[in-house]
Amino acid sequence: MFGDMMGMMGKLKEAQEKVEATKKRLDTVYLQEESSDGLLSVSISANRVIKEIKLDESLLQDKEQLEDYLILTLNTAIEKATKVNETELAAVAKEGMPNIPGMDSLFK
């Protein structure tokens, strides 16, 4: 019984290490989001860190329009990055979990 517990603890530690490695890798995964007319583009990491914002000069003429573009485009980029982040981390966590009855439903 004690050996089983030690093996399970080892697997949990290994899973945690894989999750941390995946988090670091997601820092290097970039997603691009662009407004429907191409006047604004955003680059964001899968860990939801904005890396770059590019905008067309014409957006500088209207503050309210620029704010609207930023809100819409940033929210879409963050939503996409969150999906990638959650999918990747859930896959790694599920892979490393020991087979405990009832636990598999947590990662669906």
Short description:
The chain is 55% helix and 16% strand. The chain has two helices and three strands, in the order αβββα. A hairpin with a 4-residue loop joins β2 (40-45) and β3 (50-55).
Assigned CATH class of the domain at 26-97:
Alpha Beta
Helix content: 40-55%
CATH homologous superfamily caption of the domain at 26-97: Nucleoid-associated protein YbaB-like domain
Mean pLDDT across the residues is 86
Low-confidence stretches: none
Strand content: 15-25%
Number of strands: 3
Estimated radius of gyration:
20 Å
CATH-level-2 architecture of the domain at 26-97: 2-Layer Sandwich
Strand order of the largest sheet: 1-2-3
CATH topology of the domain at 26-97: Ybab, Chain: A
Termini Cα gap: 29 Å
The largest sheet, given as strand count, sense and whether it forms a barrel, is:
3 strands, antiparallel
Number of helices: 2
Sequence of secondary-structure elements: HEEEH
Shape: rod-shaped
Based on secondary structure, the structural category is alpha+beta
